[in-house]
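Troubleshooting: if your tokenizer reports a length mismatch, compare your output against this known-good record of 94 residues.
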Amino acid sequence: PQQAHDERFADAAIYRRAGEGPWQEVREGLPDPAGTRAYVLAANDAEPGIFYAASRDRDIYRSPDAGLSWERLDVAWPDGFHVAEVRGLVVADE
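Known-good structure output:
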């Protein structure tokens, strides 16, 4: 039972599909699934085809091409900011 919450056993990936096609794992720009905990995904209606993913380890990724590839965003967290894990993600216009 404890293994489900132990990051040594974590194995998370992002999958996508186009239309009715098959689901395919996407790895470009993302860390190796082994050791990665679950992602939280979000989109912004003002940015069609762009998606965001937050790993439970606080890394934020952006996909400019509907999930085909991802880039890690350099987020400047405030001094002293700490969170045990990410449980939600909101994308808003500036």
